[in-house]
């Protein structure tokens, strides 16, 4: 892998790593650490902490979004680093996307939780009795977290239809 200076160049925004290889190793350890931490919190929320049921549903919806973002991030990491001998992709390791990759699980958790809250899923899962609702909240938010970029674009489109345009924006008026 290429060597890098510990300063910002025109095409770099991450000066912390001496090479792409060092950054890849860091991001791998980061992904594994996030996964283990997320599993620890899931275990804590489910079995160790006395949490009200409604709060547990909220926590599991956040965790579902987090794990959805983590899975998206891990898939991207795998696809970019595991190119195989033929190097079928013509682009190199994209070091400048470091911050994007670091924040994906957290942004996905936030987007999924907020989307879940906005869409009032209680109406979708009101027929589920007992502790199944937290599992459904986790599952729905995993999908929302995995597709958080798509969710945000759809919410933006919905907001554009819902919110009135400024007076100067109307071309026919």
Major β-sheet profile = none
Number of domains: 1
Global structural class: mainly alpha
- Give the radius of gyration: 20 Å
Provide the β-strand percentage band. under 5%
Oligomer: single chain
Give the beta-strand count: 0
Order of helices and strands: HHHHHH
Arithmetic mean pLDDT: 80
Q: How many distinct helices?
A: 6
Give helix % range.
55-70%
Give the end-to-end Cα distance, rounded to a whole number of Å: 58 Å
Spans with pLDDT under 50 lasting ≥5 residues? none
Shape: flat
Describe the protein's topology.
Blueprint (H helix, E strand, L loop, with lengths): L19 H29 L4 H29 L16 H21 L3 H4 L6 H15 L1 H15 L11
Explain what this protein looks like in three dimensions:
- This protein has 173 residues and is an all-alpha fold.
- The protein has one domain (20-84, 93-163).
- Helices cover 65% and strands 0% of the residues.
- The chain is built from six helices and no strands.
- The mean pLDDT is 80.
What keyword list fits this structure?
173 residues; mainly alpha
Describe this structure in a few short sentences.
Helix content is 65%, strand content 0%. It contains six helices and no strands. Helix 1 runs antiparallel to helix 2 (53-81) and helix 3 (98-118) crosses helix 6 (148-162).
């Amino acid at each position: 892998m290429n060597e890098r200076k510990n300063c910002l160049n025109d095409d770099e925004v991450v000066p912390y790593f001496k090479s792409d290889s060092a950054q890849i190793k860091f991001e791998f350890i980061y992904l594994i650490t996030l996964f283990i931490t997320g599993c620890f919190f899931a275990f804590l929320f489910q079995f160790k902490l006395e949490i009200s049921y409604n709060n547990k549903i909220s926590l599991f919806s956040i965790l579902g979004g987090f794990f959805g973002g983590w899975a998206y991030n891990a898939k991207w990491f795998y696809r970019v680093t595991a190119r195989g001998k033929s190097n079928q992709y013509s682009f190199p390791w994209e070091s400048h996307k470091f911050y994007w990759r670091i924040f994906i699980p957290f942004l996905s958790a936030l987007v999924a939780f907020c989307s879940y809250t906005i869409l009032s899923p209680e109406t979708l899962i009101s027929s589920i009795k007992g502790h199944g609702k937290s599992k459904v909240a986790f599952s729905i938010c995993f999908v929302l977290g995995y597709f958080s970029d798509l969710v945000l674009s759809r919410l933006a489109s919905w907001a554009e239809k819902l919110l009135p345009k400024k007076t100067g924006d109307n071309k026919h008026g």
